[in-house]
Amino acid sequence: MQGLAPSSSHSRFALVVAFAIVYVVWGSTYLAIRFAIETLPPFLMAGTRFLLAGALLHLWVRVCGASVPARAHWAPSLLLGALFFLVGNGGVVWAEQRVPSGLAALLVAVTPVWTAVFEWRRGGAAPSFGTVTGLVAGLTGVALLVAPGQLGSGMPISLPGAAACMISSMGWSLASVLSRGRRLPESPAIASSLQMLCGGGLLATAGLLTGEGAAVHLHAITPRSVLALCYLIVFGSLVAFTAFTWLLRVSTVSRVATCAYVNPVVAVLLGWAVAGERLTIRTVVAAAVIIGAVVLITTARSRRPALSQSSPVTEPEGEVA
User: Fold this and answer.
1) Which of 296, 276, 299 has the alpha carbon at shortest distance from 288?
2) What is the largest distance, in Å, between two alpha-carbon atoms of the chain?
3) What is the Cα–Cα distance from 166 to 162, expressed in whole angstroms?
4) Average pLDDT, whole number, for the chain?
5) CB neighbour list of residue 3: distance below 8 Å, 6 or more residues apart
6) CA distances to 41, 171, 221, 288 from 97, in Å
7) What pLDDT score was predicted for residue 102?
8) Please, are residues 32 and 239 in contact by the beta-carbon 8 Å criterion?
9) End-to-end C-alpha distance for the chain, whole angstroms
10) Most buried one in 59, 205, 265, 277, CB count within 10 A?
């Protein structure tokens, strides 16, 4: 894709395909996680996913001529890998044992809310009126989801599961803010592969420390869980990531950021259509409030100066899953 000119008709077709991949695939990862952890321990499953995806990505870019990462690149990669994948993705896979996949996606969709807060607290510009409005609206939508009552699953929401999703989104947001200015490889793909390798190793370690190793029974693992894990590795972490990084080169950041509010819609609809997760008026209203808040915040942030070229390319909120 990198050789295509954005103005050509062929490139316009490639843009449509790339956006469709980012929208649908990253939105579908929440449902794939639900299927994967049906018979696979959550942390070991996620660790396997990112270790294999990181190794494959690293091998591919090295074969294509990328330079060997320096020793100094590993410390920041470990920090970001811990926040992005151990806290970010790990919180989601743990939560999806307790909350429906669509609900988890909606709770995680408030990631831009926390990103705006962390940027401001780290010395960034004061939030604009649109950002503040989005912050309030996003938290209102979350409150509507977690308030006592019957939600999309037909059962009261698990507060520990909801809290894990919130911690997950906060970890991803903090990593996004801290990644700027860190000493990382010049190649975005190499940088991401190092973070996936570090994060995958931490997830696997967390799984072993929490006793998940003893919970692995090969005879009990279903083909659906194995296929879901393969889908997460190949499509969720490699295909969609490649499409995303290409889009950042040929499209605008604000357009690429639209995945942050399309992914939850895809996740909710897939959870309803494929997994039988019920939709209620309350869930739909909360979804509209949260997604509207993300639109406000994303639009406000897109007007700021572009990030430095040294900033790493990281997957947006939808790939918390």
Assistant:
1) 296
2) 56
3) 6
4) 85
5) none
6) 10, 19, 16, 25
7) 92
8) no
9) 25
10) 277
pLDDT at 90: 97
Q: To which residue do tokens 């639900």 refer?
A: 34
Annotate 154-167 with b (16+ C-beta within 10 A) or e (fewer).
eeebbeebbebbbb
CA angle 193, 164, 266 (to 5 degrees): 70
Helices 42-63, 223-231: crossing angle, 10 deg rounding: 40
Q: What is the pLDDT of residues 74-133, one digit of tens each?
A: 999 999 999 999 999 999 999 999 999 999 999 998 888 888 889 888 887 778 888 889
Residue closest to 282 by CA, chosen among 142, 79, 89, 117: 142
AA letter at 288:
A
> What per-residue confidence (pLDDT) applies to 155?
54
The per-residue pLDDT for range 258-306, each reduced to its tens digit, is 787 789 999 999 999 999 988 888 888 988 999 998 888 877 766 655 4
Return the sign of the alpha-carbon dihedral for residues 250, 251, 257, 258. Answer: negative
DSSP state of 150: B
User: Whole-angstrom Cα distance, residue 84 to residue 316?
Assistant: 10
- DSSP alpha helices (H): ranges in 210-258? 223-231, 240-250, 253-256
Higher pLDDT, 122 or 171: 171
The predicted structure's pLDDT at residue 320: 56
Rounded to the nearest 10°, the torsion over CA 225, 231, 237, 238 is 150
CA distance 241 to 248: 11
What band does 253 get if pLDDT is binned at 50, 70 and 90? low
Q: At what angle do helices 9-36 and 101-108 cross, to 10 degrees?
A: 120
Q: Which pLDDT score is estimated for 204?
A: 97
